[in-house]
Write a structure and sequence with these properties.
By secondary structure, this protein is an alpha+beta fold. It contains 5 helices and 10 strands, in the order E-H-H-E-H-H-E-E-E-E-E-E-E-E-H. Helix 2 runs parallel beside helix 3. The protein starts with 10 loop residues before the first strand and ends with a helix.
């Protein structure tokens, strides 16, 4: 049976059963594994190709060359990295642009990178700040004007202003945005909230009035 080579996607990984653990590289640099793993996994799950995560990576398992890289799992570890991996996997599944879309580098400077992926009218923008300071990046002609970027990891929201989108990403943080129509004011929600406040104030007024008549 013939295979269409053009449809074969490369598998990307940070470590596997034949290499030392990525955590070992981080420790050798005297850095904390958690933030480094989060940024690396974000890149792994949002660039072209199929992400492969070796067992234990979800808890930043350490290890040297094999067989030291195949240590026993510790199921009592902190769930923070596990939750993050689960989240970005869900975002990748939600956005076809992250799995099948084109790739365009929008910005790169000494550890701060922003790139765009597009597929069938869907646009995803990924910002990764692998630096020691908060970074601001302004995008102009790279994105359609008059819309907003909705962050799916940290809930960031960036609306276009004068044809520009200004992204601000904290140190050791990453965000995955989807380009969408501006949400504007949520009139039904505002109306409901106002009605609840009015009813509550009316209730307090009646209680106070009855206490005076008692």
């Amino acid at each position: 049976m013939a295979t269409n080579v053009a449809n074969i996607k490369p598998v990307h990984f940070l470590d596997n059963q034949h290499t030392h653990r990525f955590t070992r590289d981080i420790i050798n640099l005297n850095e904390h594994p958690g933030p480094r793993w989060k940024l690396a996994l974000t890149y792994l799950y949002t660039t072209p190709g199929i992400p492969f995560v070796f067992y234990g990576s979800e808890i930043a398992l350490d290890g040297g060359e094999e067989p030291d890289n195949q240590r026993q799992m510790d199921f009592r570890t902190d769930k923070d990295l596990i939750d993050y991996l689960t989240n970005i996997a869900a975002v990748r599944e939600k956005l076809p642009a992250l799995r099948r879309g084109s790739f365009e580098l929008l910005y790169e400077n000494q550890g701060m990178v922003v790139y765009k992926r597009e597929y069938k009218g869907e646009t995803a923008v990924v910002a990764i700040n692998n630096t020691t300071k908060s970074q601001a990046v302004t995008l102009t002609s790279e994105l359609e004007d008059g819309k907003e970027l909705r962050g799916l990891l940290n809930g960031d929201l960036v609306k276009s202003e004068d044809g520009a989108y200004k992204l601000i990403v904290d140190r050791d943080e990453a965000e995955i945005y989807v380009l969408a129509e501006k949400s504007g004011l949520n009139i039904p929600l505002i109306s409901t909230s106002a009605a609840v406040v009015i009813l509550f104030l009316g209730f307090l007024f009646l209680v106070k009035k009855r206490s005076r008549n008692a």
